[in-house]
Specification:
It is globular and about 50 Å long. It is an alpha/beta fold and about 200 residues long. About 45% of the residues lie in helices and about 15% in strands.
Length: about 200
């Protein structure tokens, strides 16, 4: 079964997959192009909120925060309700969110990825086949699972955090292949933590 792990990156969306001799990667500008390029993949696991709520927080987000625990719980931010996807400024998004969701606010972090959330929401709502193959994942949940159910203390952008995540991925993948992929993805396209997050989606 062909599975693609996906994470947002500087150049759009980084897609990685396991091959017979390691990993392959590709970068796509948007979800539509990514889905079309991997039309034969049975699973596309992407680090982006999918299945937005019309009102109220999503139960999976609460469960994910509880699973990863402190201090990684803050990386699982509350997902915006669908009604704010058209907002163009943070002030507008915050006002709409409070209006639609009984006063609940919206983090600047969530607003920052609103265009990415909107792109996937629009693509999946228009494509029933893609809806059956695309699944939401959260890298820190994957890393916590690899770590015996304990969230990581080390931040993913630190050298120590990067090595910790490589060590966890090496429990299921060949470490040399993980490091080779890290070295092969140009940093102008994707950061090291984007590569590791995409691998964690596999």
């Amino acid at each position: 079964m062909r599975c693609i792990g996906v994470d947002g990156c500087k150049a759009g969306w980084l897609a990685v997959e396991r091959t017979c001799d390691g990993f392959a990667f590709a970068v796509h500008p948007g979800p539509g192009e990514l889905i079309a390029a991997h039309a034969d993949a049975r699973v596309i696991a992407v680090d982006v909120p999918i299945g937005l709520s019309e009102r109220g927080p999503r139960a999976p987000d609460r469960d994910a925060r509880a699973f990863v625990g402190w201090p990684r719980a803050s990386s699982v931010f509350s997902v915006p309700v669908r009604g704010v996807l058209g907002a163009t400024t943070y002030a507008e998004a915050l006002r709409l969110h409070r209006q639609l969701d009984g006063g609940r606010g919206l983090s600047a972090q969530a607003f920052g990825i609103l265009p990415k959330i909107r792109a996937w929401d629009e693509t999946l709502r228009a494509d029933a086949d893609a809806r059956a193959r695309v699944f939401e994942v959260h890298p820190e949940v994957s890393f916590a699972a690899l770590n015996g159910g304990a969230g990581l203390v080390e931040g993913k952008k630190t050298p120590r955090g990067r090595e910790r995540r490589i060590a966890l991925l090496a429990r299921v993948f060949d470490e040399a292949a993980v490091r080779a992929l890290l070295a092969s993805v140009p940093r102008r396209l994707a950061a090291a933590d984007d590569v590791l997050d995409a691998l964690a989606a596999l």
